[in-house]
Target: Cation:proton antiporter
Amino acid sequence: MHFIGELILILLITTLLGQLFTRLNLPAVIGQLLSGILLGPAILGLIKTSSTITLFSELGVIFLMFLAGLESDLELLKKYFKLSFSVAFIGVILPVIFMTIASQLFGMKFLEALFIGIVFAATSVSISVEVLHDANQLHTKAGTAILGAAVVDDILAVVVLSLFTSFSHEGGNSGLTNNLVLNLIIEVIYFVIVWLIFKFIAPYFMKYAERIEVNYSVVIASLILALGLAWAADFTGLSAVVGAFFGGLAIRQTPQYKEVNSAVSAIGYSVFIPVFFADIGLSMTFSSFTQDLIFIIVMTVLALLSKFWAGKYTCELFGFNKIDANIVGAGMISRGEVALIVAQIGIAHHLFPEDIYSSLILVIIVTTVLSPFILNNYLKQKATV
Model:
């Protein structure tokens, strides 16, 4: 029952701090992130991350991205696919180059430095989604570009990680097999199955779910579909959030999507999503802060600039105005759970020096905590224009 007490504390503090930041005209998600830092080892030490909290956190990000898919405009996603791909591609290349060079300057070997670059290649837009949702900007061209780029970004990051582990002959594999080509074929098959579900299966699946005389049968069916696609994505070596997002897109084009959106929002936002944001803060400690201060500052600045510039200048090339380009750039900054997972793979298989692991985690979390402030600043600029 110890976890129940921790859950009560997390829900109470995330709600209170979320309300405080809302009153300050800032996104509630910032308060939820800071609640984890406050309750965790960094400050009060009341809660430590555990397997149960991690499970709730994983479900939280799945619910969040499923809801993002439910609220996405498919026509806009199609319209901005070229832009999204370009933002994602440049957004993977720039951090890898910047962070690799910087890590080498701090005395690391080339392969160690390259892996640190890969850690910062993937974007986790779950926080950006929340900020955009609160500002009613999820359906705009900037919001759509961020969502589309995030999906492509995740796929590219997995491919880059697969290439690294295949050619360096170090570490575990990042896919279903040790064979890069076979992994890519499996991932292509996954996307073919997603397309078939989207086009043919989801509408009939939801239609038959309506006929079942069980309370919330439509909602249960939608969760089976979303969780199934999330599990399958994770199984093939992709991120579960990709599957959850596509699950939301599939339900979006059915007549039942409003009912599903209402019910899943209640489940997600009341329990799982606040735990996800708090859990990011729970991972933070200041133990290595003074020891590696210069490394932390340099890597944080590069982590912010590499993604921001990739999004901003790519969008400007595609004709976006400066404000929308800045919003896309800011929306791509957050690393979150994706970078944490890649870092954990690296430390488990000795792909970079163990003594900088804590500092690397701190850079990831600081970058993630700063991202909603930066995004909110540009959203406010847009609102005043």
